Amino acid sequence: MNRLSDDYFADMYSQSPDPWEFDERWYEERKRALTAAVLPRRRFRSAFEPGCSIGNLTEVLVGRCDHVLATDVVDDVLARARVRLAGAAVTFRRWALGDPWPAGSFDLVVLSEVAYYLSPEALHRTLDELDDHLTDDGVIVAVHWRHPVPDYPQTGDAVHDALAARPGLVRTARYADPDVLIETFEPASADPASVAAREGLVG
């Protein structure tokens, strides 16, 4: 199995319009705030968010990005996200992580609660493709639940270990608690500076 099937997610949403309670849980609201806070720049040109679901995190991203490409595998979910963000600078598209990547380059790629749906081998192939679509000054932010889920091919920590092992990436920020791991990675070739250094606060 390369990844969880589209039917898995269609079944989840057939049972509840918000099966992970993105709209209701403080855990989810807090996680979105932490994700936004860990980003090293105030603005990004073009973001890619696979697995956008009903658009809660997408709503945060449109406030920080000139344009967002957001994808999911369930048509009804994409329709709800379009309503939520009508008029915003976002394009919604049906697409699954593990498919061939959309054309174009992105200076922000958001892997939020999606990469553990891939097998380790499929994740490796996906990250190879990501390399080809990340700009030289691009940022990957990875956000994943840390507790094991029997249905998922791998854990969130395993996903982050795979990102950290990529020779062309460096970890530039990390937030961890018992439940969630949030990290940013940037191309090593860019020799990324800290936020304070970018702001001229330190040499």
TrEMBL record:
What organism does this protein naturally occur in? Prescottella equi ATCC 33707
**What is the protein name for this chain?**
Methyltransferase domain protein
A single GO molecular function term of this UniProt record: S-adenosylmethionine-dependent methyltransferase activity
Output the SUPFAM superfamilies linked to this UniProt entry.
S-adenosyl-L-methionine-dependent methyltransferases (SSF53335)
In terms of domain of life, where is this protein from? Bacteria
Keyword Transferase listed: yes
Alphabetical GO biological process terms: methylation; oligosaccharide biosynthetic process
Stretches that traverse the bilayer: none
Which InterPro entries has this protein been placed in?
SAM-dependent_MTases_sf, SAM-MeTfrase_NodS-like
Does this entry carry the keyword tRNA-binding?
A: no
Annotated Gene3D superfamilies: Vaccinia Virus protein VP39
